């Protein structure tokens, strides 16, 4: 990919990544979401699915760019894709906090319109015991929350100045946890669906391929280095 084309491609990638969100907004405003049998559940799965999918796409950047030197510029899109995964994961978490926990969205909106921003804190304080109880009781929430916290840490440390502040090696060590977040996301999906539902197998298969590609590359690279050392020593 020519370097001069990167800014234009980035705009295109932004639009593609925002398309699912725009679709959700359109479904809400058009009334299509309200006509759904379970709109809250639909929103939850929609946001969760896209969080995983963008995370997978970001993980796919490295193995794809290794296929050819001409694809090296793809690395410039990995951070962007990872941040969109975090955005959708945050929306996914928000569906629980604001729609499942008992949070009175209408009361909060009315309070904000009236200029009483404190009503949001009051509502959160009211549902906090319920959310805490859910987190302690439900393993799928625990593992999902772990994945979100990891993505939060990666998002916060994604800017270049954070890389400089942390040092390259420390930054890389932290950002390898993206694989833990992806694994936790898949486990969260499996534990969330009803027993017998096999829908998450596709996501798990994609993740298995991505992890397998990393293992294969690591093994091949180590062997290549060993051969180079042997040749130099000969």
Kindly describe this structure.
- The chain has helices at 6-30, 39-65, 78-100, 105-113, 118-137, 139-156, 160-166, 168-175, 178-192, 201-233.
- The chain has one domain.
- It is mainly alpha-helical.
Topology:
Layout: H1 6-30, H2 39-65, H3 78-100, H4 105-113, H5 118-137, H6 139-156, H7 160-166, H8 168-175, H9 178-192, H10 201-233
Task: Record keyword descriptors for this entry.
mainly alpha, 79% helix, elongated, metal ion binding, FMN binding, Fe3_Rdtase_TM_dom, oxidoreductase activity, acting on diphenols and related substances as donors, FMN
Span of the ends, CA to CA: 39 Å
Helical proportion, percent range: over 70%
Count of helical segments?
10
| Secondary-structure content class | mainly alpha
Poorly predicted residue ranges: none
Radius of gyration, Cα only, in angstroms? 21 Å
User: What is the total number of structural domains?
Assistant: 1
The biggest sheet amounts to: none
User: Could you say which overall geometry the principal axes of the C-alpha atoms support?
Assistant: elongated
Beta-strand percent range: under 5%
Beta strand count: 0
Give average pLDDT, whole number: 89
Give the SSE order as H and E letters.
Answer: HHHHHHHHHH
